[in-house]
Hints:
Chain A is mainly alpha-helical.
Amino acid sequence: MNLLVIFIGAALINNFVLQQFLGICPFVGVSKKVDSSFSMGMATTFVMVISAMVTWLIYNLILVPFELQILQYVAFILVIASLVQFVEMFIKKVSKPLYDALGIFLPLITTNCAILGLALTAVLKEYNFMETLIYGVGAGIGFTLALVIMAGIREELELVDVPKSFQGAAITMIIAGSLALAFMGFAGII
Amino acid sequence: MNNTAKIIIVLTLLTVISGAVLAVLDSYTKPRIEAYQNQLKNAAVAEVLPQNVKVESTEKEDFTYYTATKAGEVVAYAFQVSGGGYQSELVVMVCVTPDFSEIIATKVISQVETPGLGTKIENDPTNKEHPTWFMDQFKGLKINPTITYVKNAKPSKDTEIQAITGATISSAAIVDILNKQIKTAKAIIGE
Amino acid sequence: MKEKTAIQELVKGIWDENPVLVQLLGLCPTLAVTSSAENGLAMGLAATFVLLCSSFLVSMFRKMIPGQVRIAAYIVIIATFVTIADRFLAAFVPDISKSLGPFIPLIIVNCMILGRQEAFASKNGIGRSLLDAMGMGLGFTFTLLVLSSIREILGAGTWFGMRIMWESFAEWGVMSQAPGAFITLGCLIAGANWINARRKA
């Protein structure tokens, strides 16, 4: 399958957040400011791509040949959890301010369903290694895009009177709904 | 040292127990799941083949196909085709005429495409009179030498079908899978 | 802080500390599988099963799991039970299993489950942990049921597959799809906030 189609599919048409409902927790939790949203998006994309590749290797080179597919979930999530640990240590060493800015949301990348979801879907679609890689990059970019757009809107929202009951998650959901509606328009691209 | 040893022991024990439990689970559930898949396949075969035929299943070169005969004469072949759709594996049972010139019927066995878009290849709830319109297009479709699809227009040739708006990839995948694998099946069945 | 009675441990998850509407956990499956009441219920029950079993084990072995690796340990336990739930669904109700798709395995990263292990089961006895798990599971299932019922009735005119709306009702297709999910959940959260604000007044 055309790599470009996979990329656009993952980033726009089947956007992980707005169409596939993956990564909603960080979407609601981190999208208050544009720059932290962008950093979160990039960190997530990084973990997504590497974990997609590693889980692909483990699935196709170990689980399948030895008929151990039943261990898929346990293996995948352990890979992801370890990866996030490494990324956390790495960012802490390389850029302490970034580490502080992302705070608790860094370890929470482990429970970002988008990462496990990506690994599982790539296996389900029987993508080869290259396709998995592109799929991961596209998904990550789509995730970042959704986060940044939402952050941009929420920054504006700070200046407006949102009814008390709707403040926080509720209004974010409703805006997400409008964004999802808009993104559905991409379906006609291909 | 004591703490590290504890960590290693606990994690190893946990993984081993988990592995053992899952192995038992696998042996118990795998046969059931496979039986269900077979049941789906058999139902699909029955659905795509013409009525009142004698069905015989043959396995040749790792490929299973069903020959339908009426009064000793072959009237159709049915076989399963599959391939990647937009976001899932598409499995379809297809039935063709003995000379592979025409598709008699198709039936989607499994797909997990985008709900509301790609899933329309199996069932389109927005088309109340005819929810299976997409697959029904393949009934009587000529393979000459391949089938094609068109977007946002009614088919103009007898080898053409109309793709689903907003689900072009799923639609194209079906056409692609059918083209490739009908050709392969033709070579194997040897007619 | 006053220690909660057993009943309070159970009931808190249903409303006051409702995992979805109040704690904002487990949002992904809440949005994804609630296009039909049947799927919403199945997901709720599957997640409750995993939560109960995991909390049971984590609580039972809480003194033996070293602190540094506790998250990894919880995850392995949770992933094992999710695999069990997934296989059981695939073997006994394959149609539901197919429509729930990848969201059953995603129960593993449902922050509600991991969150309860970290916040409660690792620090409390088995009895209380089970009550807590049961309450959270019920709250989760209840929320999914409400959300999916609204989406199915308005989006397809049916409830659990049975036609409910009058014949000429034109379905609000958007409800079955992404935007409908987001907006309905947003309104439910707002509704919960409003009710809770009035209760505190």
